[in-house]
């Protein structure tokens, strides 16, 4: 591997979370300046969340810089305090720094607009796209990475894929307490204006350390780690799973499904075609197709669709652009028959149930133990005692134990706000009444 | 005027600057929910500034809510402490509250995408559009305002127009120290991650008071007002006039000018037409045309233009989307001949000077005295002594005196970064050398 | 009850936590200006904690103002949103405002210097003293309160005593989530420079409400309440129970015990007498005696004791003033015999065990259910659903459930740092070796 | 000079301003642990200011750590970016690091309680005492410094004395923009809860650099430096010169003068003697005498004086402890005759003018040019252009120019609040009336 060049003078980017992002390597500056990376400026970090928390309009661009910066500081801290003396001593080998920094910077390069929703409809996967963009020889990112060595792009991709041999590097970027999560919790808390995501990053960055098994934490820092777990849990419950943002997400889903439906039924004229979406409708997407997508493009199609003849497409596009979310109630998994009934009443009231109702279940696992048989085995959080022995976090934190291995979230049924109208003044009196009679305390009865 | 309805329970919106935005009136909630107001979510507050300060991706939507909230708190403070007892006593008449709140909320409703640049090219004016949107009977905003009274839209528009009879209301929304400026300074400082815009809003909101001549400040608060003036000055120098953001603004200007040029020269095929921009190219714009515009639409056109045959359009579109700003040097007003020469060398080096060079002068007047003969007479800031006598701010603050009546900013000449290339390895050796020989310490020699 | 006078103009005190403390009532201003309340400036809020967190030098004075301010804002919020319409409707009766404000302001008036330590040695009790100072006719506080009505002092005292009939007032000042705790968590977090104590006060102040049973919270605010419980738990574990601060507390305890011992053994000459402490040595303390005490007085005695003939008193005084804390190890309750042995080795090494070793156990109950048979029954936290039904917090929060009814803390054995010296170079070789052999990983073996 | 030992593992102290104070050298840790340095915990940073801003109870201990930390970071930044290559190149010679750190840490070691007031009365000088404590062989500080080399204490003292040969080291600790001022502005702003002292430390720490003439700043950072100058100006006007804090300072002055007066007139009995103050009354002070003094001792004497027979001493002690400041009015220098008259009326109203009235003039020079003929020549602030040329700050900043060489502050006359009483109900009717008649708008007429 060629020794990478340093900038003659460090560059800094002002950042509200980390104060300054420090760029010291030519290659990092070059990666930031690629069209692929600049595209992230046009993709919101939190999708429809800004419809609930209007301050949260930040992009994935800023987040990626933040993950890079945390990783950079951790490498510097490791190099200063835990430099490897000989192979296999479990300490930090600074020749890993560059692959860690590149993986940190690029870990979200494969995100598209409103990823969660978009991936679900069009069967794309942002992690797979991240690896593809890194390893595809036509991207500028790939070309810059290849300057380090021919294998370097694949190495960076393997960190994201978690197959890179050094577990320290993998866990810095992707584990239950990694640079990615640490940045997004602080950043999303700052931009939403809530405080749930605040935790003591400075303290965590002092108790973190490399170890043979990967990344561990000095036991004195237990409460700082515990606090981070709780912060993440709170952000999921309070911000990421907010029912109103999900109500907008449902509108978005239905809108894209309607467009796909119209395309598949040949109901769009040539001038109405959303050309840059067609590869996705057809499920034949090149890297180039993928990189054209951003929030701006989707919203511009929605803007244009306001004029299209299809009334459902027009209506859903306006609901999205004008922020008129679907409403919701919670329900229990054993109430699925009743949901079917609710959908029928909605349909009878003039709303095609396929495009005007939805089930949205949002659950997160705040913390989990390592289980080799799990679909995605988690690296558990280990605390290191004075004599080097490790303790798994939930064995000494009752709070983490309470959250461990236990999904948190809710099941929600979404429908148009109009279903709450006064039945008596309405053509669909009986159906509206039946619908409304099954709701109490915002839950399905 | 019909007494406006209160919400049965106050609604709040979380805001990073003001903690909560409090909505108490039905009409305010309805205005926020109009398509015209929701459109502001799709227009960045600071245009190209986020290319320099990546955190500053906030929209005009959030700012407008902030201006509303400051105004709401001030009305509440005035009503509690300075309620008018009889006509003409110079105290606060709370029947002015609603017009003030609506004007505050809607004061930027006429902003389009990248206003500064866009207005300059297409001769639009956001203040005129604000008034037009408020008073045009087809907008939802107008319809909601008319529920108060038939004259209410015109009254709200007249506050923005500064012709509303009550000077207190006008100055709350628009003066040298108004709710607009107070919100944007704090908000832009927060989102850029700088601290220059911070000032003591809480203190100012305690020393502000109504007076016969409009809005004045208790003299004890002089230093808080002074600090605000300095903060604003600093934000202009450090953030709003940043040479790199202006380098992106220049790219944007040239890009839109090129598109207009191609349109006017009939060089665009039918499928290439940016249909929603044509009314602007033709200078025949309806309210409906205007409200279709947003940042998303413009950037999507730029995205599409990357594929168009015209090489200049393609190149400029990529420079904008991929953030490759023009570079700049400062110059003095008497160096215009030399600028012409620099443009010639640029042209000779392969860049059409019309679309690849620009002059950009940014100046602001941090504070000014009232001058009835000025083009836009300023309401000067008055401080009230214990006995009611008023003192103009700059008479007691040497700092404000130093800034008063004196424009601050610079003259810059912009050109492609390629003009900095090594001349020796280049076809355009002589011109590049001549060009570069006239630059020293980032200034024209 | 006489209607209390309002100040002609509200006064404000700048406060780093609440921005401004607003004083609106003459009686509140008068109470703040009493010598008894001003004395709180001379008593640190966190005692020996500032020896660990050097930023935490704030006084009880600031905290008491903060508790007052939170209470004031809550009363205002209740009055605006939940005004009682008729007796017994469970809503807020604003005639309770003044008693609530006075109790909030005065709830800590009975604190002495280093209360925890001091009370333990001299069998005083700050809550009893608070009531005594309020009800003793000779204090200025009592005289001011009596201006409201002859019964008013007793009413205020009964709020602190929790016997006041209105449970809303009692719980505002004293419950598992009260104005006292809310202020000290935020304030101590700010001054220590940690973030563990941060929680979302603004959100809690929107979901709190009066109810027939006292104070409850809207169920939508569950996570904000949960976050507060976790913050408090974290502050106890990370800040209040810090082993080094407790090491200073132990030095302080031993120092005061030595002084008392010398007094009781008539070993102090007349000029050496700490006159203002004698009433405490004798356990005959008047209100006047009590109010002379403050941190300044104690530390000045320590300063003087540096010159006294008794070597133990001199040594302990210097250890305290020069910040040389005792060291500690954790132990398990069943290791008491071994502790006795450790004390013997310490004694053999030249340190009188009575004055140079100590056991310090610090435990807190983060949350508990109401138990009528408990020594101090807790008012549990209730969440109110849309239909008015109440849910106890731990039934819906797994985190709170994990912390509920379960004490957290540790047992520590304290001894001089000198016990860690190298035994080989030491007269007390055998005892030091034996002592040190029983310590591993900072715990007793 | 012996190469100083590094700690095996860096220690950190939590700090609200700088997050962590990093201690890396054995000698720095040892200095912090001396009794002389720990004494600074018992001396408030802002003296009587906490009577106005109740949050500002922080000590000189925390400030000294902060100055040390800023200096440490600057040395690290200089070493990384501007390491000296050969003697006299004007870059940073890292062998200066330790003397800079020690001088930073110890620069305020000679402060006594309420320095400003105390020094004025007893003709002590904290800078002289700082040097004496450092160079006196009996102090622990001196003994620790001598471990580096026999000359090291004198070198550290010469930095404080500004005679140390390297101007970079001197200016880091003491200049118009030094580590001392940078820390106290931020710290005092944080603890008072005001924002005037906030400036962009991070930015300044990026543009600062060593130069042959000392410390200079990159010209790009001009506005950050300008902002710092304005912040400092604002803190003086808004916080440090607050009339109420000065009203308490006047009470303190009079109280100490009265005690000295009684001592000099042999009016104190043996048991009443404030023994530890006698050396100051006699002006025969040893280092040991000096180091016994702290805020605690003074306030304890005041506490005891409440019982002394002298009515003036008792009264002034109570005014101070109970926070009853003298009131004030501004006056102009040419009104001295009238002041004499005001004093006479005060005397006639029952208050000995010598102990109940005072003139207090507070002025600060926000910025000044270098003037070799000045009493204390200032090192002016120089900005460095790309080509190395220096520009003096006020030549390019109109704000700094406005403040340059111009003292800001006011003249105030202080007297007891009782002089504002209603004359009609008073024995001293005529004098009170005359007194009051000369006051208008809080100024002398």
From TrEMBL, chains A, B, C, D:
An individual GO BP term: dGTP catabolic process
Residue span(s) of domain HD/PDEase: 56-194
Matching Pfam families: HD, HD_assoc_2
InterPro entries: dGTPase-like, HD/PDEase_dom, HD_assoc_2, HD_domain
CDD domains to which the protein is assigned, alphabetical: HDc (cd00077)
Molecular function terms from GO: dGTPase activity
The protein's name: HD domain-containing protein
Organism: Bombilactobacillus apium
């Amino acid at each position: 591997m060629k020794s990478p060049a340093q900038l003659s003078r460090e560059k800094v980017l002002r950042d509200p979370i980390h104060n300054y992002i420090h760029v010291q390597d030519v290659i990092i500056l070059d990666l930031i300046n690629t069209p692929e990376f600049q595209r992230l400026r046009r993709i919101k970090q939190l999708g429809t969340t800004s419809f609930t928390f209007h301050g949260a309009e930040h992009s994935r661009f800023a987040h990626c810089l933040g993950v890079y910066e945390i990783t950079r500081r951790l490498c510097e801290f490791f190099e200063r305090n835990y430099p490897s003396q000989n192979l296999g001593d479990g300490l930090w080998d600074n020749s890993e720094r560059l692959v860690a920094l590149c993986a940190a910077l690029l870990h979200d390069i494969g995100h598209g607009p409103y990823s969660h929703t978009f991936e679900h409809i069009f069967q794309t996967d942002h992690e797979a796209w991240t690896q593809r963009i890194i390893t595809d020889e036509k991207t500028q990112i790939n070309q810059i990475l290849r300057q380090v060595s021919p294998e370097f792009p694949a190495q960076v991709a393997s960190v994201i894929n978690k197959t890179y041999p050094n577990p320290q590097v993998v866990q810095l970027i992707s584990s239950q307490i990694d640079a990615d999560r640490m940045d997004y919790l602080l950043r999303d808390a700052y931009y939403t204006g809530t405080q749930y995501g605040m935790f003591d990053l400075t303290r965590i960055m002092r108790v973190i350390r490399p170890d043979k098994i990967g990344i561990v934490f000095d036991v004195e820092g237990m409460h700082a780690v515990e606090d981070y777990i709780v912060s993440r849990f709170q952000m999921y419950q309070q911000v990421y799973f907010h029912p109103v943002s999900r109500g907008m997400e449902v509108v978005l889903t239905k809108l894209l499904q309607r467009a796909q439906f119209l395309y598949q039924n040949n109901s769009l004229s040539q001038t109405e075609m959303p050309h840059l979406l067609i590869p996705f409708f057809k499920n034949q997407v090149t890297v180039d197709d993928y990189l054209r997508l951003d929030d701006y493009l989707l919203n511009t199609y929605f803007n244009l669709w306001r004029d299209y003849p299809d009334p459902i497409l027009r209506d859903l596009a306006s609901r999205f652009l004008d922020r008129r979310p679907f409403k919701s109630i919670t329900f229990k998994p054993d109430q699925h028959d009743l949901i079917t009934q609710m959908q029928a009443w909605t349909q009878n009231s003039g709303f095609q149930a396929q495009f005007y109702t939805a089930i949205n279940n949002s659950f997160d696992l705040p913390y989990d133990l390592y289980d080799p048989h799990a679909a995605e085995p988690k690296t558990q959080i280990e605390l290191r005692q004075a004599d080097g022995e490790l303790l798994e976090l939930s064995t000494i934190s009752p709070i983490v134990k309470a959250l461990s291995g236990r999904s948190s979230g809710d099941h929600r049924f979404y429908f148009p706000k109009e279903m709450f109208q006064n039945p008596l003044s309405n053509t669909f009196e009986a159906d509206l009444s039946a619908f409304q009679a099954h709701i109490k305390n915002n839950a399905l009865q």
